[in-house]
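queue> pop job 88
queue> type: inverse folding (structure -> sequence)
queue> payload:
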């Protein structure tokens, strides 16, 4: 009778352990990352939807889809999320079978084979805590993905607006250059007839040279900006 109670206790102990672990896991489910309903759109997606310029919206969307840094961060976050349920599982059981070349003598006779089975049982709540830690790690990686996307959106918009500013600045500078050329022509005509001073012509020509250098600088800056926009890996 006493042996039967011992056997019953040995069988009941793992069952009770697993039941306690499951109750603890359910009790902490409300505090896990992702236990609440996710929002319909992330911050970067909402910013993308609210961009009014179709060209800029399309550009930002392409950058987010094609940037290898975002793709790598998404892969790391997805792998971490898939590992979370695995850490909750019990360790793999170990079965063993031993054959004796020289059979040792035991109380019941010679022993030829020995079979064994081992199942590790972590402390109550340890598996649930490991799963929760894995879920928090996956949530941190998801946050890194969103941070990377927000950084790309911000930089792409900055480059786009800087390029728009340069295009407008070039138009204004070109108009100013045309205005200077007209005045320079008038000054040269007045100087040739003796009604004007040569100093005025020289000053206008110097200003025209400065404006032309400014136009070259604008073009060089535009080339750099276009190259950065076309290579989202660099930012």
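queue> result:
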């Amino acid at each position: 009778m006493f042996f039967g109670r011992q056997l019953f206790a040995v069988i009941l102990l793992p069952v009770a352990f697993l039941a306690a672990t499951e109750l603890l896991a359910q009790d902490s489910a409300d505090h896990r990352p992702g236990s609440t309903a996710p929002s319909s759109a992330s911050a970067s997606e909402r910013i993308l939807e609210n961009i009014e310029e179709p060209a800029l919206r399309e550009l930002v969307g392409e950058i987010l889809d094609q940037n290898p840094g975002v793709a790598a961060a998404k892969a790391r976050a997805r792998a971490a999320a898939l590992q979370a349920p695995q850490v909750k599982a019990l360790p793999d059981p170990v079965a063993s079978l031993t054959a004796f070349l020289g059979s040792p003598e035991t109380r019941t006779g010679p022993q030829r084979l020995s079979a064994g089975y081992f199942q590790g049982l972590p402390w109550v709540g340890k598996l649930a805590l490991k799963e929760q830690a894995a879920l928090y790690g996956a949530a941190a990686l998801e946050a890194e993905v969103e941070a990377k996307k927000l950084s790309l959106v911000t930089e792409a918009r900055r480059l786009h607006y800087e390029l728009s500013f340069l295009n407008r600045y070039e138009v204004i500078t070109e108009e100013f250059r045309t205005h200077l050329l007209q005045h320079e022509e008038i000054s040269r005509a007045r100087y040739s007839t003796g009604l004007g001073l040569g100093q005025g012509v020289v000053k206008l020509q110097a200003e025209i040279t400065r404006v032309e250098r400014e136009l070259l600088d604008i073009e060089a800056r535009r080339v750099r900006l276009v190259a950065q926009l076309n290579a989202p890996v660099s930012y």
